[in-house]
Design brief:
about 120 residues; alpha+beta; Aspartate Aminotransferase, domain 1; 4 helices; MmcQ-like protein; YjbR/MT2646/Rv2570-like; YjbR-like_sf; YjbR
Length: about 120
């Protein structure tokens, strides 16, 4: 996988935890109990997609710009996007959209939950 830095990058964000959803074979990154990113693994446990949530207009725009960004793999195709782990999406753009997914999910949480996560 080209983006070897993702795990450390996401876990450095306040309030982030990760788990392995065995029945999906996904490594999920969560804020509270809400997923904002996932590394989807194939039957050999190798990354096949990195999935994250974006504003629908931005996701659509990025899909038009990069062949390696597709509608969400096994997710709502309007809000979720999947990126090929060995694709041509630049690291800085990947960090930017991971940040946006994190903030999008954070903004949907209650103010109380936001404070708990950000102070923890």
């Amino acid at each position: 996988m080209k983006y070897e830095w993702i795990d450390q990058y996401l876990l450095e964000k306040k309030g982030v935890t990760k788990d392995l959803k065995k029945e999906w074979n996904w490594i999920r990154y969560l804020l509270g109990d809400k997923m904002f990113a996932a590394i989807c693994l194939d039957e050999c446990d190798k990354p096949c997609y990195i999935t994250l949530k974006l504003d629908p207009l931005e996701g659509d725009f990025l899909r038009q710009q990069y062949a390696d960004i597709i509608p969400g793999y096994y997710m709502n195709k309007e809000h979720w996007n999947s990126i090929k782990p060995d694709g041509n999406v630049p690291d800085e753009l990947m960090k930017n959209i991971l940040d946006k997914s994190y903030h999008l999910i954070l903004s949907k949480l209650s103010k109380k939950k936001q404070q708990e996560l950000l102070q923890g």
